[in-house]
Amino acid sequence: MIAGFEDAFPALRSEGFEETSPPSQKYNCIAWAAGSASQWWWPYQHPAYYWPEGLTREVTLDAFLRAFVSLGFEPCPTGELEAGFEKVAIYALRGKPTLAARQLADGGWTSKLGKEVDITHTLGGLEGPVYGQVAAYLRRPLRGAPTQVA
Amino acid sequence: MTTMIKATIKGRRLEVDVPDDWPEGAEVEIHSAPEPRIQQRFRELVAQWKQGTRLLSSIHDMVTHPAYLEIIGLGKEAVPLLLDELRREPDHWFVALQAITGTNPIPPSACGDVENMTEAWLSWGEQHGL
Question: Least crowded by CB within 10 Å, which of A40, A45, A94, B52?
């Protein structure tokens, strides 16, 4: 386990996880959840950071929901596996989005942890002091999504 | 063209070995290296920032980390150090570089692409002899 993970994610070891990529500064969890492994997505006012065109750049749950809606997702009530859909879960801490996770075909989840590695995990495994709790789920009809770093 | 060579201050004179291929009459700009004290503090702050932000996706949280703000506070002396750091290990130093220099050389086509954003800043540095 990468140094410091146990303090940051108290439930990760007991819930189970697997590292699936080397560390990378090239992309973050929002990009990874959206299907990109080549950009850092964040609604920062600095124009150099990617955010879907025409959307408000602010760190609110509503802004993040709109970003995924612009990609064809729609809000849904749970993170349960549903045939024919892929899902995204958005974590928030004190009301601010911190992480997006993407559901895999087996019902597990994949996330990029900041500038560190990608992991597969349960939703509960990443809840805690760093990313807070899952605050919203979205789904869209299944179409190709990357399963490894390009 | 930008070439880095070392020079030594002796008394009030600058001693430098001029490369053989430099033509007579070429104009030369001199940039002093940051003080060792600042270099040392910069290294400490980079280590603190990397450790403190490694799990973050939020650019807002990265650029308001106390170590990042202190690096911005180092001012222009931090610019060559930041560019060296980008050469060594690309990371999110773009906001700091823009805050210090007041410029943003990143083209819209590089938006969100850390490698190309890094390349844009390194090219800017070369154009400015850094």
Answer: A94
